[in-house]
Amino acid sequence: MDDPAAAIAEMARVVRPGGRVVLLEITPPERLRGIHARVLRMATPAVGGLLGGDARAFRHLAETVAQVPPPERVAALMDDVGIGDVRWQRLAGGMATLHAGVVTG
């Protein structure tokens, strides 16, 4: 997401009241953040280029992971646009975060 606030607002807009919004994001882990960033920056484009043929797209993925807002900020953005009962959980040692909430209005 280039603009997380706008993307989350659009999700809230298109989901009917009472519907669930669920986000699964690749996130930098709390521990080993520096190592994770280096490995992601080097390995993802190389492997993606071999398997998918477009290293540039995978380089972009590695760059955007570093810009993902912290889970608390994503939860606040969800709440700001009318997604309530927001809960989040780090998965895979913090390398992914799952957010879920219910559209209130």
Question: Could you describe the 3D structure shown?
Answer:
By secondary structure, the protein is α+β, with helices and mostly antiparallel strands. The chain is built from four helices and three strands. The chain has a three-stranded antiparallel sheet, covered by helices on one side. Helix 2 runs antiparallel to helix 3. The radius of gyration is 15 Å and the shape is elongated. 15% of the residues are buried.
For the residues shown, what is the average pLDDT? 85
Give the spatial strand order of the biggest sheet: 1-3-2
Number of strands: 3
Structural class based on helices, strands and sheet pairing: alpha+beta
Helix content: 40-55%
Show the helix and strand layout:
Elements: H1 4-14, E1 20-26, H2 33-52, H3 55-65, H4 71-80, E2 83-91, E3 96-103
Antiparallel strand pairs: 1-3, 2-3
Helix pairs in contact: 2-3
Report a brief summary of the structure.
With 105 residues, the protein is an alpha+beta fold. Helix content is 50%, strand content 23%. The protein is built from four helices and three strands.
Q: What descriptive keywords fit this protein?
A:
105 residues; alpha+beta; three-stranded antiparallel sheet
